[in-house]
Amino acid sequence: MPAINTYMAILTNRGVKKFIQLMHQGHGNTLSGELARMIDPRILKKLSSTMNVIAVTGTNGKTTTCNLISNIFKSGHIPSVHNSLGNNLMSGITTAFIDDAGLNGKMKDKWAIVEVDEATMVPFLKEITPKIIVINNFFRDQLDRYGEIDLLIEKIYKAIEKVDAKLVLNADDPFVNRFSDLKNEKIYFGIGADAIHFEKNSMADSKYCPNCGRPLHYSQTFYGQLGYYSCECGFKRHDPKFEVENVRKAEHGYQLTINQSDYILGLSGVHNIYNALAAFSVAQEIRIPIEAVREGLETYSVRNGRMTTYLFNHTRQVLNLVKNPAGYNITISEVNDDPQKKQIVLFLNDFAADGEDISWIWDVDFEKFRNEKVWQIICSGTRAYDLAIRLKYAEIGEEKVRIIPNLKKAIDQALESASLTYYLPNYTPLEHVRSYLELRTQSDQSLSVPEKRMVRNQT
To answer: Would you put residue 268 in left (φ > 0), alpha (ψ -120 to 50) or beta?
Structure first.
């Protein structure tokens, strides 16, 4: 029998979570996790003590990387704990572990795949010692919450310094390279110099050497500060153990050549190549059978608003989360790669979960929407007018821009046009946009039954 506080923490978590779900007020992971941690502050440490934990952190790609790893585990018939809803703070992580535990406090599974918010890594590592830590990248993201990148990286560095975990690092990011000085075992993943073309953009968080401050020399750039870099002082990109050598478009995603073998990635979006490579690297390091890796990469379907496609009046409605300049610029490139004429609906909120400082939108290359294929841009959300001002400075004609702060009205207006539409919300509008799009598209009387099934399957 577990300690009474652990038993009560588990019971309270499950009861509160169920009540919130019955009231249709969300998943309940945050509040139920907070209450469990108040009742037993050591509950996460206790539950995780027998687990092999894979922690994934960084700015972009955490959720997709974790979901890909989880899908590979499922393909290999390896059960695992996973905070799949993206609840990456301590409360959500705690709930994910409680969901797998019996009332006696014993875990059913041996593996855990955990997405960890960058700012949460320090308290997370005080309670859990992961077997593997994956670090994807670092970009400016919610500066009012995280602070400057250098300070954030230094805090995470000092926290990892105290744990014995294997590090799986993105060799192409000089910020991630800073963790190379740690004594932990390290392996690197990266993209080959000629594997794929990334559209160039004007934004890079840092192209200066973290050791000596000189400008880094780049022989190849992908996006942001990612690429092949070196410095006179000796700081340089590490040769990766796992490398994407070639990328070709597939019917639904990409065909990737990794270490001379071919794999299908069932996801669109060039940024997902890094996420797939990170997941592949983890799977290889823990020796998951290659057949499971192939199946996991190919069969994973997008979730949580990452390039999710709906149909309305026989036209595509595409939803994608955008939350910082690097990710936004990649999304803009992908939108522009779509040859059809289209409209864009931008949603920008400034609540605590979004970050109240929205100055980052000035580092987004909205100028690239200044083309004849984009016939209209609707600005919505609490900072709709700020978006419109940014578009004005991007010299996008006023006749193309509409301001509709109300989210549902903005979506209704977009759907009325029967046009290919890309919906780009930041954090807090995402779930509302997704839910309302599902409601409108599934009630669309113009769609046949097979088309409606396709919409449900894709979401």
So the answer is: beta
Closest CA relative to residue 263, chosen from 294, 290, 241: 294
What is the pTM for the complete model shown?
0.82
List, for residues 179-202, the tens digit of each pLDDT value.
999 999 999 999 999 898 877 665
Give the Å distances, CA to CA, from 325 to 117, 157, 215, 438.
Answer: 18, 24, 21, 27
- Identify the bridge partners of residue 81 per DSSP, sorted by sequence position: 112
Out of 338, 357, 365, 412, pick the active-site residue.
357
d(CA 165, CA 314): 50
For 417, list phi and psi in degrees, rounded to 5. Answer: -80, -10
- The residue assigned the tokens 């997902």 is 272
Say which DSSP state 361 is in: G
* SS3 call for 82: strand
Q: Is 404's pLDDT higher than 50?
A: yes
> Is the Cβ–Cβ distance between 256 and 241 less than 8 Å?
no
Q: 168, 190, 205: which is closest to 327 by C-alpha?
A: 205
Helices (H), 128-271: 143-146, 149-160, 174-177
Q: How many CB atoms lie within 10 A of CB 204?
A: 19
Q: What three-state secondary structure class fits 428?
A: helix
Question: If you average pLDDT over residues 2-27, what whole number do you get?
Answer: 80
What distance in Å separates the CA atoms of residue 270 and residue 268, rounded to the nearest whole number? 7
E-strand spans in 136-210?
166-170, 186-191
pLDDT > 50? residue 432: yes
What does the CA dihedral 184, 189, 190, 195 come to, rounded to 10 degrees?
160
363: annotated active-site residue: no
pLDDT per residue as tens digits for the range 215-238: 999 999 888 889 999 999 999 999
Check residue 445 and report its DSSP letter.
T
Question: What per-residue confidence (pLDDT) applies to 396?
Answer: 95
To which residue do tokens 């509302």 refer? Answer: 432
AA identity, residue 442: Q
